[in-house]
Amino acid sequence: MKIDVLTLFPAMFEAVLGDSIIGRAAEKGLLHLRYINIRDFSEDKHRRVDDYPYGAGGGMVMAPQPIYNAWRFITEPLSYRPHVIYLSPQGQVFSQEKAKTLATAYEHLILLCGHYEGVDERIIEEIVDEEISIGDYVLTGGEIPAMAVIDTLSRMIPGVVQHGNSESESLADGLLEYPQYTRPPEFLGRKVPEILLSGHQAKIAAWRREQSLERTRNKRPELLERMKENG
């Protein structure tokens, strides 16, 4: 999968995503990441990328031209149009199910990170295919949401997660993950459940399923309701 990020702060991505699982996946060519600095495409001699909003009001708005120029830099050499996502509190709330849809439907994504009071509406109308939010709260910019999207999608690419099964993790099947344990078998008087030491894989699987259901019922009951509604 290819992911281009349009941002004012590419160093944020390099610092956070350059190491660990995602960094290794990029080095192996399993994931192609590119961070495009919108400011590099400003036509203003001072490299300005924002201006005061029409109609007055507080804050600044990201101007359309630098974003459009950066988008054209990515898309002009291509024979297809990448799917463009604007990270916005007005978008659909991101979920594991949405991540699956994106991972299977698109090979190339462009993530647009807004800042200040957002971006000029005309750029949304011209290049954006959908808006995505990571929750009902306000952040200073779209960089953190974009990292969350990249991290989630990367785990769905074969070979990125080297150990274990990412499909068994929390929310992969709509449920919270079962409890996990490792050595020692007893810690501060608390013992690992005997079933996990039995070696009986069918019984372990049944125990884990029941634990997932119980945890979801206690912590996130709305997930069970959503599963019922979806059949």
Write the layout of secondary structure elements.
Blueprint: E1 2-7, H1 10-17, H2 20-27, E2 32-37, E3 50-51, E4 61-62, H3 64-75, E5 83-93, H4 96-105, E6 108-113, H5 121-127, E7 130-133, H6 143-154, E8 186-187, E9 190-191, H7 201-219, H8 221-229
Parallel strand pairs: 1-2, 1-6, 5-6, 5-7
Antiparallel strand pairs: 3-4, 8-9
Name the structural class. Answer: alpha/beta
Rg calculated over all Cα atoms: 22 Å
List the total number of helices: 8
Unreliable residue runs: none
How many β-strand runs?
9
Summarize model confidence as the mean pLDDT. 94
Strand order of the largest sheet: 2-1-6-5-7
State the share of residues found in helices, binned by percent: 25-40%
- Strand fraction equals 15-25%
Query: Which sheet architecture does the biggest sheet show?
Result: 5 strands, parallel
First and last CA, distance: 31 Å
Order of helices and strands: EHHEEEHEHEHEHEEHH
Shape assignment: elongated
Explain what this protein looks like in three dimensions:
It contains eight helices and nine strands. By secondary structure, the protein is an alpha/beta fold. A hairpin with a 2-residue loop joins strand 8 and strand 9. 37% of the residues lie in helices and 18% in strands.
Please outline what is shown here.
The chain is α/β, with parallel strands linked by helices and 231 residues long. 37% of the residues lie in helices and 18% in strands. A 5-stranded parallel beta sheet has the order 2-1-6-5-7, sandwiched between helices. Strands 3-4 form a two-stranded antiparallel ribbon. Strands 8-9 form a two-stranded antiparallel sheet.
